[in-house]
Structure prediction request, 168 residues.
Amino acid sequence: MERFLVELGRTVRVPVRLDLHDGAISLWRRARELTVDIDDDAEVSASDAGAWEQALRAVAHKLDVNVKPAGPADFIPLPDGWQARSRFVGQYGPVSVYTFDPYSTALAKIARGSRTDIEDVRQLVNGGEIEPGRLRAMADAIMPRWNERVARQSATTFRAKVDAVLSD
Prediction:
């Protein structure tokens, strides 16, 4: 992951905020040796978006990694304060790198609900990255903004998944 970020910093010529997600976070922390792909969520000005995409594709190709734009907002409404809970990783040239808010990440993983996602959430809880009570409160807070079309499940189904994960 460090090699990817260094190369990205050398290649990108526009200011970008890059939030890492899922396997990318685990890889950065060295918790996993492999990741299927690097999920990213980049904030870049509209005028710089083309240059960012071109540089990202070039680095991904050079290092033979799969990079895809994806993040928790693709699965859930983000809880208030997510940016403040994101953690700064480092500056790589014009690229400011963050790990995405662990609460938003956990809620998105619960919504997706794969075995690996649920194991990841349990690791976040057991490792002290997130507090179960606060996670439940954030799940409650996003319910009024729940969009079944985006989340691809009902609010009731999501609530049951949250309860199941936090009751273990």
Residues 49-63 form the longest helix (15 residues).
